[in-house]
Amino acid sequence: MSELNQPESGATDDLSIDKLEKVVETNKDLYDELNKLTEVEAVEAFDTGEEAAAAVQEEKKAVSAAFLKIKNIYLDNDLFRYAVWSILLMLLSTTVLTIVEYDTFRDSVSGHLGKDNPNFFDTFYNTFWWSVVTFTTVGYGDVSPVTHFGKLLSIIIMLLNFGIVTLLGGAVASVLVAERLKGDDKLDESKFNGHLIIAGWNSSVPAVLRILQTDKNSTSVVILVNETDGELIERAISVFEDLDITHLCENFTNETVLRKAFLDKAGMFMILPDNSGLLPHEEPDEDKTVLTCLTAKAISEDCPVVAHVLNPENVSHLQRANVNEIVMPDEHVPHLLAKHVTNPGVPQLFDELINQEEDDKGIQQVEIPRPLMGQTHNKISAYFKFKHQWLLVGYAIRKSGFSLEDQMGESGSPLIRDMITEQLEGAGIKLSSDEHVVVEINPPDDYVIDDKHRALVLR
Amino acid sequence: MNPSPEQIKKINHFSKLPIDMCAKIAAVVEIDNCPVKEELLTEGETGDTMVLVFQGQVEVSKSMMVKAASGFTTSRKSIIRLETTDPPPAEDPISEATVAVVQLPAFGIGEFSLVLDDAIRTAHVVATTPVQYGILKLDEFSKIVEENPAIGGPVYFEVAKAAVNNLATASQDISNLTQAFFFSLTR
């Protein structure tokens, strides 16, 4: 019986429990030592003191972003611009006329309201009433300037007013025409920034949405683009109360439709095999996936595109279409089956990790604190272990794509380099390939991380 | 009028020669003047003369095929400007330089003609300021080298150095063009 309690691997036969405890103790000492390092202390400072400074910085950024947003609306939106002009002109004319024709407007208040001694605000309000009546060309005539100077100012105001009213009317008309041309189902642009677009509908979409709903860090704004019946989609998505889901019942290969879904502002575009309108025995048309990827990249090269393909033959087409990530659902199946034979327990581990539904459990990608940049893997590992009790499994590394310009550098004659750049750009060929993510699992202790790394931890 | 031996010695290719040897070269070179915009060398033509620029600025350019809105067309692309510093140009350049301006006391162009019969000019050279220059002919230089073999070593070494540099740049250009070719094929 005592033999059954021994470690089963032959390599550990000569290790007594005492020795194992010693190894554990030694490592603990090492981790304790690492935990005392200045970098780790700096991280703690980063977690506390710098958070307040960062919050102030964030607030400043938010204020300047709000100003910038208003400025952009003013510059881009004719209607807003002319409305601002109109309000300013009304306020200006009210102020000027209140000063120039104070007695006239004050007496008018007395006449209408029966107030013997109307105050300044009553008079100002009465003049504002005159401004609005004049501006809107209603012209009741209940009150009007009487002095020559007041009338002269009124003429100038009315001439300016004529121009602005014409512009404002034109802007309103053009907005109405544009709305009519775009259709009635135009989405509210302000809501969509960094959102997820899912093109195509199949049984995996609700599963994707379920995972998104449990992850607090991912976007909650989703646009589904497919031609499946709206009622069916409504039923399927009604359970995801925490997600803001919009359904566009249109053909997602169409550029106009992708633009309507604000692809240029999306954080991620996911293309799935589309079962819309198919009978149970029919296979989805994967050419649509390739075509959609090409269209998406033509609209926005920067928006990351993830494509789910069933047929491996389409992988090369998608790579040529510059897709960022390709997911093939069946590619892991042979490995999992084989592992049941060679390494029992490993497939169960995968199941456990992938199907983990608790928000704060399983494999997750987390930021590495900035002060730890440039440190080695063993220190980062010690930080996560003792600070958060997480196991550092590896790193997700953002690799910049191949850049022809970087590759050429300063070599050869500038004439030829310039010619290559000009000609390729002229032909619409981007000189660099897109950024992509690679994974480094369990690197050596002295592996150095930089700001391109994010930690993959087991929580 | 012939240039002085000192003027010849300012040119890189002849800088290592003793002054009496420079005097022999100066004796076969005649100083001339070239107005602004005039071509000193024309790309594609053959020639057996080296141009020695004593004063002024020139622009070196090459004809290249480029794609324009109307289709493919040939356009002249500037590569570099060369300017003397001793003495500097008598006037300001006719146009602002869009490429690097390399300054030298004096300089020679078309040096491959000192070793090759009918060497093909690989670029256009146009005066961007009034230029004072002289022409050194291959047969006259060869005759001087025959009579004074000591001249040959330093001069041919400089010509060989320029040729090797050109070869290295051309090799890198081929590498860059090949990369660009494969890159564009895969996009």
TrEMBL record, chain B:
<dbReference type="InterPro" id="IPR018490">
    <property type="entry name" value="cNMP-bd_dom_sf"/>
</dbReference>
<dbReference type="InterPro" id="IPR000595">
    <property type="entry name" value="cNMP-bd_dom"/>
</dbReference>
<feature type="domain" description="Cyclic nucleotide-binding">
    <location>
        <begin position="13"/>
        <end position="162"/>
    </location>
</feature>
<protein>
    <recommendedName>
        <fullName>Cyclic nucleotide-binding domain-containing protein</fullName>
    </recommendedName>
</protein>
<dbReference type="InterPro" id="IPR014710">
    <property type="entry name" value="RmlC-like_jellyroll"/>
</dbReference>
